[in-house]
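User: structure tokens for this one?
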Amino acid sequence: MSRRKMTVFTVGVAAAIVFMLIIALIYLNTPVETPKVSLPDNLSENILPSGNPTGGINVGDDLKRIEVNPKTVQTAIATLERPESYYRLLTIERFWGDGEKAEYKIKVWVSDGNTKITVLQDGFDSQNILVTPEKIAIWYDGSQELYESVRWDGEALLYTSDGYQQMLTYEDILMLDSNEIFDAGYKEKNGDYYLYVLTKDELLGYQVTYYISIESGLLSYAEKLENGKAVYLMAVIEESFTEPDPDIFLNPEM
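Assistant:
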């Protein structure tokens, strides 16, 4: 090949490479549209309890459909906030082996980052747990021993509190890949409306169902199945959003 032809060929290849780089940069800098859902204020007041079983939202006099599905439910959950103060009574059931079962009733008081938990189980002394941003204290009714430790600040306070309540942390849904969320939407349960989410871990064989209150921003019901069998059930049976008595969050006098 002559020097002239080689020069023309080299210039052509270089131009093609530059053109491809320009196209790649344009593509990489083009924003990708992600599914979005915007929830109106006072969401629970706008749920239509009848005539709209698919979960439409009534904004003023107009009906605005907000689609919550596996691709948008994480955005919806991200708008929820837990209240700063409340009281709840939970039931937790755990199952294992051949029909073996343990049942707990758990009282929870929350105020300004402090959580007091009382775990009740038939045949056992009540366990009391105080979780604050700085420490964890544990004591049992009828005992004079108090166990205290500094709270590990490497764990979010939310996870520490939920863990001692034996409650799933629904905010974990925000960290899932969309292909791990198999179903989502609005569902009615016992006269109230919830964000419903079904997740699956195919590798471990777990299936978890969450019902998150759109009124309070708290998890109200949860179920965990392992290979199709229930291993964990959680339900709220009492709830109040009045400020708890500050004395509830004091260590006992031993």
